[in-house]
Amino acid sequence: MPDTAFASDTAASNASLRAYLHGLPGVDEVGAKARAADLGTRSIKTTAKRQAIDLAVRMVDLTTLEGSDSPGKVRALCAKAAHPDPADPSAPQVAAVCVYSDLVAVAVEALAGTGVGVASVATAFPSGRAPLEAKLADTRRAVADGANEIDMVIDRGAFLAGDYRKVHEEIAAVKEACAGTHLKVILETGELATYDNVRRASWLAMGAGADFIKTSTGKVSPAATLPVTLIMLEAVRDHRARTGRQVGVKPAGGIRTTKDAVKYLVMVNEVAGDDWLDPAWFRLGASSLLNDLLMQRTKLTTGSYPGPDYYTLD
Q1: Which CDD domains does the record cross-reference, listed alphabetically (predicted)?
Q2: What is the CATH number of the domain that holds 190?
């Protein structure tokens, strides 16, 4: 069921949703960029770097979302997710593998007994442009095949046209179709044009029942950025203060290096608090990040970087 963040349900009028969302405090764009830049300069002590790297690994949603995806490619990705560094059994597993809905059953079988989750992009990813019936059918299939999480995309056209009720109703309907499976709602912030819209879309998604709010599909530029993630972290922090319900955040797309990942971890701690420093509440959507994390991890252990071909390419 949607929560009561703005005293609405799926029958809420568009006028009431608009009044609520446009009544949120405006975002100081200059201030948000400046604070994100400042947080991005923070460093962590060498003694804490290993802990931060391992935490980042555990937060990764290892992703393959290409038209060329095959069962073999998904099985290989699942093997890496469960054992990121076969030469080092102490290397932690990632949080989940994220695939298209028709490959969920392959991933579920490959990851059985590992504890690694299976996420599926559904609802006409990445455009979100399909009838609601098709989106719900896609979601139900992924859940029936064993997905632990659904990553849906909002209808950005409806949102930008001010049809907040349609977006709210679609999120609530997909949440119901999830039948208890966690729902991550992708805002595609690169298409929302303003930081105010990012804040509004965040609150709209949370009010409709999202368990996570996610920046991007990774198919639109810009994808995840520190200022946008800052705004979303403020939103989940304030939402919990207002409603008592905690919602996760997932920046996705363009996060490629350990240095990038650490910047996001610092931001989570400084903006939302350490309650969110857990894979249950913060994820990193990435395909190339994991290899850099593993390289940095090996460097801390051995004093030297492994060769470029040491880890598989995803």
Answers
A1: DeoC
A2: 3.20.20.70
pLDDT value, residue 155? 96
Q: How far are the Cα atoms of 25, 73, 153, 187, 262 from residue 246, in angstroms, in the given order?
A: 20, 35, 20, 18, 22
Asked if the model's pLDDT at residue 307 lies above 60, the reply is: yes
What total of structural domains would you count in the chain? 1
Give CA torsion, residues 87, 89, 92, 93, to 10 deg: 80
Whether 162 maps to a domain, the answer reads yes
Asked, for residue 227, whether it belongs to a domain, the answer is yes
- Provide the token pair at 255: 């996060």
Domain with 175, as residue range(s), is 28-44+119-302
Question: Is 288 part of any domain?
Answer: yes
Residues with active-site annotation: 151, 214, 250
Q: Which residue has the higher pLDDT, 9 or 51?
A: 51
Residue 5, in any domain of the structure: no
How far apart CA 66 and CA 60 sit, in angstroms, is 18
- What mean pLDDT is predicted for residues 257-272? 96
Query: What's the farthest any 2 CA atoms get from each other in the chain?
Result: 61
